[in-house]
Each structure stands twice: as structure tokens, then as C-alpha cells.
Specification:
- This protein has seven helices and two strands.
- It is mostly helical.
- It has one domain.
- A hairpin with a 5-residue loop joins strand 1 (2-5) and strand 2.
- The longest helix is centred in the N-terminal third of the chain and has 35 residues, at 20-54.
- It starts with a strand and ends with a helix.
- Keywords: Membrane, Transmembrane, Transmembrane helix.
- The chain crosses the membrane at residues 28-53, 65-84, 91-111, 117-135.
- It holds the Pfam family DUF6220.
Length: 147
């Protein structure tokens, strides 16, 4: 009985070395984390807005919250190998990590260079777009469809 496909695209049987459950679980986690990353970006923007429009003390929420989700793209990249995920869904994990690293550069290293710092919110929008793309492409794995 075919339960899944391996990284090479060949059918994985219940008795094969690669457990089909590992692939399904990895893909499910990938989809959940892609969605979580997109949601975290929304919360991050909310915290930035609170720091700007409500109370400057709330800016610390924006600065601290990123530490809870900035490594998710690396986990997506690792899960892409474990789950046999190929193509753009694999490589956008590294792309998002690079974009996340760029956020630190634009906010910290070049905060006084406005021509660089102004790209911080633009990069956040691009990260959100990529996270939505990954979420849309992997949403079938949340229900077990599109194994």
C-alpha cells in the first residue's frame, strides 16, 4: 500500500526504511510553521505600531518578540529535507532566513543610515508575502491532502 513518496519521488511502502509517518509529520509541521511565521510578522507589525502610535515604551515588544520566531525559516529548511519537500518550498526557508537577517542589519547596524534603514518595513512586507506563499503552497499538508 502506498502511503507517501520518498525524497526521490519513488513510492514509500509501509515497510520501507523511510517511515511514511515521518514525511507526513514533517510536512504538517512545515505548513504549521509557515502559517505561524506569517502570523508572527503580523503581530510584529502590530507591536511596531503600538510603539509608534500608542506608547514608545511598547517598542520593546517589537524588539523582543522577534527572538521568538526568527529561527522558524531555518526549521522550515530542515523540515524540507526530512519531509522530502523540494523546489521553492525548500529554498524559500533559507531565503526567509536571509531576509530575517537583513531585518537585523537594517534595524541595528544601519539604523542611522536612513537610506538603508527605510528598507526595514519593505523587507517585512516581502517576508510576509513569502510566508503567505509558503502557507498557501503547503496548506494541503495540514489536512493530509497533498502528501
Amino acid at each position: 500500500m502506498m502511503n507517501d513518496t520518498s525524497r526521490t519521488g519513488t513510492p514509500v511502502q509501509a515497510g520501507d526504511n523511510v517511515p511514511p509517518g515521518r514525511i507526513r509529520i514533517s510536512r504538517f509541521l512545515y505548513a504549521v510553521l509557515a502559517l505561524l511565521f506569517a502570523a508572527c510578522i503580523v503581530v510584529q507589525v502590530l507591536f511596531a505600531g503600538m510603539g509608534i502610535f500608542k506608547d514608545a515604551a511598547d517598542w520593546e515588544l517589537h524588539r523582543a518578540f522577534v527572538l521568538y520566531f526568527d529561527k522558524i525559516p531555518l526549521v522550515l529548511f530542515v523540515l524540507s529535507f526530512v519531509g522530502g519537500i523540494r523546489g521553492s518550498l525548500r529554498w524559500w526557508g533559507i531565503g526567509l532566513f536571509a531576509m530575517s537577517s537583513l531585518q537585523y542589519v537594517t534595524a541595528l547596524a544601519f539604523a542611522d543610515v536612513w537610506m538603508v534603514a527605510v528598507w526595514h518595513p519593505v523587507n517585512a512586507l516581502l517576508m510576509f508575502a513569502v510566508a503567505l506563499y509558503l502557507t498557501r503552497r503547503s496548506r494541503g499538508w495540514l489536512s493530509g491532502i497533498g502528501r
